[in-house]
Amino acid sequence: MRAFRVLSFLFLACLALGLSACSSSKPEATVEAFYRAAAKGDVERATAQISFADVPANQMVQAKGKVQMIVGEMQSRVEANDGLDAIEVVESEIDEAGDTARVRTRLVFGNGKDTSETHRLVREDGDWKIVLR
């Protein structure tokens, strides 16, 4: 019986740790998670990094379609440039209230080419989300 309690406790502790690892406590982590998912074509994981708070309900399907298109384009760009070697954070700013952020990144591809991107983020329920433009 005691072994069962210990195993139950360990299971719950691991579950809690795993769930907390999914949340993005830093805006940079959200942007990186988005690019890693997009490079693999993982629309679901990429979509999880996006804020849909300002999207009206009647435009939700279009907004999610836009994310799907962005992910497809990103995956194609990564494949055409021999993979994604690095995601470098060039600059990251969080406003004084701690509710919005701006992250500028440099993506380095396998063939040596690079590109820079800037994203605005908002904090939703403690997690950072990329603002859909």
What does this 3D model show about the protein?
This protein has 133 residues and is α+β, with helices and mostly antiparallel strands. It has a single domain, classed as Nuclear Transport Factor 2, Chain: A (Roll). The chain contains four helices and five strands; from the N terminus they run H-H-H-E-H-E-E-E-E. Strands 1-5-4-3-2 form a five-stranded mixed sheet. Strand 2 and strand 3 form a beta hairpin. Helix 2 packs across helix 4 (60-80). It is flat. The model is unreliable at 3-23 (pLDDT under 50).
Summarize the structure.
The protein is an alpha+beta fold and 133 residues long.
Top keywords for this entry?
Nuclear Transport Factor 2, Chain: A; 5-stranded mixed sheet; disordered N terminus; alpha+beta; 5 strands; 133 residues; 4 helices; 46% helix
Describe how the helices and strands are arranged.
Elements: H1 2-22, H2 27-40, H3 43-47, E1 50-51, H4 60-80, E2 84-94, E3 100-109, E4 114-124, E5 127-131
Parallel strand pairs: 1-5
Antiparallel strand pairs: 2-3, 3-4, 4-5
Helix pairs in contact: 2-4
**Main pleated sheet:** 5 strands, mixed
Structural classification: alpha+beta
Strand content: 25-35%
Tell me the Rg in angstroms: 18 Å
Strand order, biggest sheet? 1-5-4-3-2
CATH class term: Alpha Beta
Q: For the record, give the distance between the C-alpha atoms at the N and C termini, rounded to a whole number.
A: 55 Å
Quaternary structure classification: single chain
